[in-house]
Amino acid sequence: MKKKYKMNKIIRFGEDVEGYNIRVLNEREIRAAAGILFLATFISLMLILFNENFVPIKYVITFFLTDFVIRVIINPKFSPTLILARLIVQNQTPEYVGAAQKKFAWIIGVVLSATMFYSFIIINGYGPITGIICLICLVFLFFESAFGICLGCKFYPLFFKDKVQYCPGEVCDVKSKQEIQKTSLSQFIVLAAFIAFIILTINLMNDRCSEKPYDILGINKTEQTK
After folding, report:
1. Residue (of 218, 205, 41, 193) closest to 131 by Cα position
2. How far is CA 89 from the centre of its chain?
3. DSSP, res 91
4. How would you classify residue 169: left for phi > 0, otherwise alpha for psi between -120 and 50, otherwise beta?
5. Residue 119 lies in a domain
6. For the segment 31-58, what is each residue's pLDDT rounded down to a tens digit?
7. Which one of 48, 66, 71, 197 counts the least CB within 10 Å of its CB?
């Protein structure tokens, strides 16, 4: 009986926290871990684009899949990236979110990373599908780390009837916006004007920005002369 109890403490999803009627996870740790994975994936993709170096992405995919399998099958508290994230944000007050929707989102992560693992590691190939999956993973990780928006969690209500509880920023709860959260017409106009400014700047400065900058200090020139 003791052995079974110990196994239940090891293999489980989410934590029991006083005041919450379901198992929860710390959103601050999740966002930090998403940031770590986003950075690793982004750098790996840049190396492919500029150096045609596929070695880093193969390692990143392997670690990505392993990390998510540990989260979903064993326990999120033993996920290497979440452990590292916990050390990074350990002095911040926890923000609890429902574990159920996070598990569903991470299952999506397992499917995506497993597909990438099969393509890059097993058959050692790439194509439009791998590119699209990489882009989806980057978007999911970016929204999680930058905005605290779990895109995978958005699909949870489509498959499960139980109500989603304890979403980041309490977005699950219907409530009126506070004054500081409201966006005025003038702010929308400023945003639209800035987008128009970006488009205009790109059109006017494209030729100038396309020019290769010269070495102000002449360091590279000196090295070539030597």
Report:
1. 41
2. 16
3. T
4. left
5. yes
6. 999 999 999 999 999 999 899 899 999 9
7. 197
